[in-house]
Amino acid sequence: MYENHPKSGIWRRRRARRALVQAAYQSQISGLSRAQIEKDFLDNSLRKGDKAFFSDVFRKMSSQQSELDETIKPFLDIPVDKLDFLERGVLRLAATEIQYRHDVPFKVVIDEYVELTKVFGAEEAHKFVNGVLDRLCKRYRDTELDNRDL
Question: Does the predicted model carry a pTM greater than 0.85?
Fold first, then answer.
């Protein structure tokens, strides 16, 4: 009924990001292949989510993990491999969007992943994620930051 409503795209992306956080977590603990995890989510969890967005971000995150870890490493006070699985997954996903999805405003990336960290993460994890993503955006989305008040 509301399929073509302007906000339906927002909710479809939001559902995709929720599934992305779960898929990133699962990929770290299950030993399943990226293809199997992606298929499971596309077939079972994303009936109303943005499947193309999910696949794009999940594939990029999965194939670029080492590079993404190097991207977030300067903003951490502990090694990437010592991060909680959820926080590491969230930071990799957000870094993927910040670096490769310039169609998504950085504020949306930060807000969405901080909110998802509140839902799935430890009590204060969202504050840590927010701080890392804020600094990451300042480095990789500086043009967008410079133009936000125009």
Answer: yes
Inside any domain, residue 1: no
Furthest CA-CA distance within the chain? 48
Enter the tokens of residue 132: 């890392």
CATH number of the domain that residue 71 is part of: 1.10.940.10
Dump pLDDT digits (tens) for 74-123.
Answer: 999 999 999 999 999 999 999 999 999 999 999 999 999 999 999 999 99
What does the chain look like in DSSP terms, one character per residue? --TTSTTHHHHHHHHHHHHHHHHHHHHHHS---HHHHHHHHHHHT-TTS-HHHHHHHHHHHHHTHHHHHHHHGGG-SS-GGGS-HHHHHHHHHHHHHHHH-TTS-HHHHHHHHHHHHHHHS-TTHHHHHHHHHHHHHHHHSHHHHHTTT-
